[in-house]
Amino acid sequence: xxxxxxxxxxxxxxxxxxxxxxxxLLAVVLLFVLxxxxxxxxxxxxxxxxxxxxxxxxxxxxxxxxSWGPSILLQDRLDKALDYLEDHPDLTxxxxxxxxxxxxxxxxxxxxxxxxAHGVDGSRILLEDQSHNTWENLRFTRAxxxxxxxxxxxxxxxxxxxxxxxxxxxxxxxxxxxTTLSTLAAPSSHVPSRLxxxxxxxxxxxxxxxxxx
Length: 213
Fold this sequence. Notes:
It is built from 6 helices and 7 strands, in the order αβββαβαβαβαβα. The chain is of the alpha/beta class. The chain has a domain at about 65-210: HUPs (Rossmann fold, 3-Layer(aba) Sandwich), CATH 3.40.50. The strands form 2 sheets. A 5-stranded parallel β-sheet has the order 5-4-1-6-7. β6, α5 and β7 form a beta-alpha-beta unit. α1 (about 20-45) crosses α6 (about 190-210) and α5 (about 165-175) packs parallel to α6 (about 190-210). The longest helix is centred in the first third of the chain and has 26 residues, at about 20-45. The radius of gyration is 26 Å and the shape is elongated.
């Protein structure tokens, strides 16, 4: 009688694992998402008021100027500053921001006009109107204060809350411990802009960490 050969069942035979390139792609996407979440957490954690000591100088950082005046985000910053200045009218104020290609005037001039229209003494306001990003805001502000001989040992910076983590990081590079920094976190009352900035700001934070030196 002819001997029968055994037939073996191989349930996984013929199936292949995922290509290496796909696994690598998934790993990159996962790292990207995790990195973004970490950076967003840093941005959110920095969005708060923090007053230390008695600031002598207030720096208001610029934002987009529209044809009709300050954008909503910039107006949020200015209104936050005005609230603080009501109780601290003797502060020297620096308004910092140049003129973009799509802006009718410099951000500094727009802020000056808004503040003086709301009762701030214009003689106490210094205009830094050459900067075009946060790194330049802080560097040029320092140069202006030194040129004017202003005591900048204690300062308060005003910006929208999403911006302040990056501001604190860059401030430490510009001033290197020579000043005491306080911050005022303005709200971001325009919802579409707020959502856009909370997506943009983690990338800006990473870029500034690597390149703004």
